[in-house]
Amino acid sequence: xxxxxxxxxxxxxxxxxxxxxxxxxxxxxxxxxxxxxxxxxxxxxxxxxxxxxxxxxxxxxxxxxxxxxxxxxxxxxxxxxxxxxxxxxxxxxxxxxxxxxxxxxxxxxxxxxxxxxxxxxxxxxxxxxxxxxxxxxxxxxxxxxxxxxxxxxxxxxxxxxxxxxxxxxxxxxxxxxxxxxxxxxxxxxxxxxxxxxxxxxxxxxxxxxxxxxxxxxxxxxxxxxxxxxxxxxxxxxxxxxxxxxxxxxxxxxxxxxxxxxxxxxxxxxxxxxxxxxxxxxxxxxxxxxxxxxxxxxxxxxxxxxxxxxxxxxxxxxxxxxxxxxxxxxxxxxxxxxxxxxxxxxxxxxxxxxxxxxxxxxxxxxxxxxxxxxxxxxxxxxxxxxxxxxxxxxxxxxxxxxxxxxxxxxxxxxxxxxxxxxxxxxxxxxxxxxxxxxxxxxxxxxxxxxxxxxxxxxxxxxxxxxxxxxxxxxxxxxxxxxxxxxxxxxxxxxxxxxxxxxxxxxxxxxxxxxxxxxxxxxxxxxxxxxxxxxxxxxxxxxxxxxxxxxxxxxxxxxxxxxxxxxxxxxxxxxxxxxxxxxxxxxxxxxxxxxxxxxxxxxxxxxxxxxxxxxxxxxxxxxxxxxxxxxxxxxxxxxxxxxxxxxxxxxxxxxxxxxxxx
Length: 660
Description:
With 660 residues, the chain is α/β, with parallel strands linked by helices. Helix 5 crosses helix 6.
């Protein structure tokens, strides 16, 4: 058969094909495309290559000599599926045609993942092919695995769940730190690793990307302590169950999971995989009715007899998905609303009862006094650690304390009731409370507005408080703030967030460099917001490379790089020469990364006049570009809160051993 006859046969088949455009296809020329039933895709893979410029499920022939071989598939297709005859459009496909890679891709889409952050390696390449072939998924290639994990963390903060794909051991152990951070922050991240060929398990073979032992479990052992479930998929019989179980556990527990998939399995059809998996569904959970009733009665009794109770919100509001119930409770109570630092962004700050951040000695002005002088305080979803307690210095008395965790309520020295879920509890409690605004009225009596920065002299070097005064003016419901570990924690904490303004930082884990990857992931998920990231120079040096990925993805984030010559937060805890870093030409680095491809604008700022001009440009003519503004400040220019916090944390760190 000549090429012309082959093309004619293909074109005739295409005219009569009952398959939808979502079927797999092979592009023979610019004008001719052969649509394949999924059962024949694996055979077709032998004769075609993926088009690297295409993110669709189209393939290009390696050479025209492959065409006759592939055409030989067509008689079977005609016989088995009625192609070329008067067949009705196919609405279902045999489950035997589904693949592991396709199933995983569909599951990710079903749970809300649209972008997967990845670094390719030889063990995950076939799996990446199947993820790319899923129309609902976009693969975002990152510069390294650590940033891919941080990006999945940031994505999960905006979308509720994130995913990353890396290769075996060298990739897995690189992403491990980011997954540990996601675990500490209770974020469901699906960490997928391309594993060894299934035939190599149980042998005495030594593989590359390992530590030189025939035991392949080193990576798994490391992930066990920082994930809530682990699945090693090295056979197809129970792969469906393992994948679905791991994903379900991640969503139920709001923690990361680890899924390792043998590199030879993603493309093999198997009867357990439907072409269109059964829709993913998690049954709702409800509280123990008797426990819920007892918890509400005891709490209401304590609060209703109190004179000046207060509410303090914690970061586990997100885990419990209880923000709506929290506001229902707050509105019914009339109490003042404070937040712990890690809960910033979870409670609307435009609410009339909102008073600020409770952070012990470094609280928002007058908030610490109101909270610690209350005769009852209800902490909703708190984490009390050395950082949030400012070196264990909070003046909170347990007998006055009601602690509401995602699935438990503890009342003072009294009962602690489990299987009582936060949202159920807060909604029920709201109906039992007497309104009491005494503490809120006390707050308004003693409140004095914060001062304004001293008058700025012309050409005077820029101060940090001036920088954040202007950042405050940039905020709206269409922006989101990402605060890096360091003095940005404290300066960003003082920002007053407008309605719907996003806010994220990594309080529990505090890994410097987190914000670069997290900014990439958050901006990719929250396309309706412009992200404003505040990053210190020391942190930026850890993870700078993925500025490249932000530009490639067309993101328009504004990054304020605070150049003060070192690790300022470490200086205030314990100073030493190791806290001084080599200065970089940061804008020069970003310009080199930009390399004329994509939209990116940079500038250096040393005075307020230059800052105002830079912000006008970033929000005006460069509003569609990634904007990188390097801000020079004095090495000792810090917030007063960092000075206080650092000295208290230093004291806690340096406590001598207890007497034996």
